[in-house]
Amino acid sequence: MRVGIVGAGMAGLACAGLLVEQGHAVQLFDKGRGPGGRMSSRRMETPAGIAIFDHGAQYFTARDPGFASQVGEWEAAGVVARWPDARDDAWVGVPAMNAIPRHMAYGLNIVSNAHVRGIARGADGWHLACEQGGEGQFDALVIALPAEQAAPLLGLYCLDMARIAVRVLSAPCWAAMLTFEGQVDCSAVIRDNGIVAWAARNNSKAGRAGPEAWTIHATPEWSRTHLEESPEWVAQALSNAFLGASGADRPPLAAIAHRWRFALSGTAGREALWDSASRLGVCGDWLIGPRVEAAWLSGRRLAQIILSDGASSLCDQPMARSSGVA
Ligand SMILES: Cc1cc2nc3c(=O)[nH]c(=O)nc-3n(C[C@H](O)[C@H](O)[C@H](O)COP(=O)(O)OP(=O)(O)OC[C@H]3O[C@@H](n4cnc5c(N)ncnc54)[C@H](O)[C@@H]3O)c2cc1C
User: Fold this and answer.
1) Is residue 247 a contact partner of residue 190, using CB atoms and an 8 Å limit?
2) Domain termination site, one of 221, 247, 264
3) What is the pLDDT of residues 37-78, one digit of tens each?
4) pLDDT at position 134, please?
5) Does the C-beta of 93 come closer than 6 Å to ligand 1?
6) 103: domain range?
């Protein structure tokens, strides 16, 4: 089977990995420069050296036995390590969070910088309309995007799926990345302090030798109120908030901000969606909840359904488990 997957975040990659393992021809399309989506990392050159930040997911937990076993394999491959500064069961990518999607992407056929604007189904299968090129013809199509981005594509072909997606709303998050000369004298993680929902010393994660590097996440409320402000303004505002929260006695050497419009998803209370008649499927964290583990579980689940060609008209799999929030 030729399967096209729109979105090469954790869910799309997990789905692709299992399908390829079973001998199917899979092609992923992502609008980003590389795979990973919200498991992104950034490098910043500073006078004190290269600082590395995870600016989306900061860490993840593994409670499902299948996911825990996958994390064990990544650990053996040197791609993840524990991060006790956050919590005893926290895992991070080594040397950065995007090491995990990169590892998963190895050997997969991924078209980057391919913003999919439309999907079309003809007698010969599925076709994609990409903004910057990239094309293909597929027997099955998987949409592995945040709910808000999936809904308009799904609405073209499956109103039932689109209706499920539009009911799930994500919270935005402004993230700031700050570097300092020398260590800031405070604990490695600060939670819930004014507009700072989370601040973490990213150079305290395993395998990072760079200078003092902090990622700050603003609260959803503050992020929503200031969603359309400039990154420069937000970087300054979150720097000030961090100085207050940490007690740092000097300004950062450098500060940049990144806006996550759809950072933390709601939940549809399902695992994956599949329509066996049209061979259209949906996976993503939002089917289960706003976590890396949920995205992996949803992607794997959809691949299993496709492999068994789970016969349902709107493949609407009720959740088999409930898992906590990382
Ligand atoms: C600020 C922040 C903090 C977080 N903290 C945690 C945490 O502490 N613990 C935890 O477990 N999880 C956390 N998460 C959530 C975690 O990152 C996500 O649950 C997970 O990465 C989602 O994976 P996904 O594949 O479902 O979606 P995504 O990672 O969003 O992947 C979707 C992909 O689709 C691409 N795309 C979008 N539209 C199109 C299009 N039209 N055409 C082509 N490509 C497109 C995007 O570029 C992206 O690569 C956090 C996320 C954020 C943003």
Assistant:
1) no
2) 264
3) 999 999 999 888 899 999 999 999 999 999 999 999 999 999
4) 64
5) no
6) 2-38+99-168+266-318
Are 248 and 207 in a shared domain? Answer: yes
DSSP label at 210? S
The domain tally of the chain equals 2
Residues 186 and 130 in one domain: no
Query: 249 CA to middle of ligand 1, Å?
Result: 34
Tokens read off for 241: 């908030």
- Report the alpha-carbon distance of residue 87 to residue 117 in Å, rounded: 40
| CB distance 32 to ligand 1 below 6 Å | yes
The answer to whether the CB of 58 is under 6 A from ligand 1 is: yes
Boundary residue ending a domain (228, 246, 264): 264
Helix (H, G, I), strand (E, B) or coil at 318: strand
Contact 59, 39 (CB under 8 A): no
What pLDDT does residue 46 have?
87
66 occurs within a structural domain: no
Are 7 and 103 in a shared domain? yes
Number of helices (H), then strands (E), in the chain: 9, 19
Q: Which residue CA neighbors atom 53 of ligand 1 most closely?
A: 263
Q: Are strands 137-138 and 80-82 parallel, antiparallel or unpaired?
A: unpaired
Quote the pLDDT of residue 133: 66
The domain that holds 284 is classified in CATH as: 3.50.50.60
* Per-residue model confidence as pLDDT tens digits over 157-208: 899 999 999 999 999 999 999 999 999 999 999 999 999 999 999 999 999 9
Q: Tell me which residues of the chain have a pLDDT lower than 50.
A: 313-326
Decide whether any atom of ligand 1 lies within 6 Å of the 284 Cβ: yes
